[in-house]
């Protein structure tokens, strides 16, 4: 089991993420407040618990921990606290991006349960995402790795750019290169960034950082393309999120792009989807006529 090498560290990271709930509670212990203010505190604690007590795959922290091990074997060193805090910060940024994505996509399910926006409403979900981003940034300072805060802000901006590009291309016939551009911003850049920043924290030279960045970027591309395939062929009880949700929202991904090349009528079907509300069962019947394998 490849995870056995890092299982203890992953448990510490999960505990630190859940520790955010306790940190939020502690902030109110010595504050005198009216009953309705206490109720507000308890409400947001429930929001945090719902979002943080999940069954996330922890893929990004896993990448960081293995890059860390690889670099340590090459003689690079870093304090364990710094690398663990970096993992938590990255995972919080990822969680925040998922929460904001669910608002934009109007998704009802995330990781096999109600999405935050579906359970608590869009306003609370936006604030929760913002809170997690700021908490992740604060962790970088607390661990003494504030030298990558500007890079962390640039990452968030790049994620936003990718989301904007995806939205502006909704229900449009796009080519594979356009698709690669926005998944590069949304996913591949993020994975490349964490590979590279792990190297930065461990004082790797410029040439090695470029290799780490490229490696992570290509892994991120493969990861996102695979995820997009699962939107057509996956099972909700296994993926933890609704299938065909991207296409219903007009997000054109690799499977549909390649299917359009062989079946031009699928291009005009995007206009139909934009103008009509269609159920997944109807959409599935339509897509079953074509080969998406």
Report on the structure:
The model has no long low-confidence stretch (mean pLDDT 90). With 293 residues, this protein is mostly helical. A hairpin with a 2-residue loop joins strand 1 (109-110) and strand 2 (113-114). It contains 14 helices and 2 strands, in the order ααααββαααααααααα. It has a two-stranded antiparallel ribbon.
Question: What is the 3D shape?
Answer: globular
Spatial strand sequence of the major β-sheet: 1-2
Order of helices and strands: HHHHEEHHHHHHHHHH
Provide the β-strand percentage band: under 5%
Distance between the termini: 30 Å
Mean of all residue-level pLDDT scores: 90
The radius of gyration over CA amounts to 21 Å
Major sheet summary line: 2 strands, antiparallel
Précis, in short:
The chain is mainly alpha-helical.
Topology:
Blueprint: H1 7-26, H2 35-52, H3 59-73, H4 80-105, E1 109-110, E2 113-114, H5 116-120, H6 122-142, H7 149-168, H8 176-201, H9 206-233, H10 236-239, H11 245-248, H12 254-262, H13 265-275, H14 280-287
Antiparallel strand pairs: 1-2
Helix pairs in contact: 1-2, 1-4, 3-4, 3-8, 4-6, 7-8, 8-9
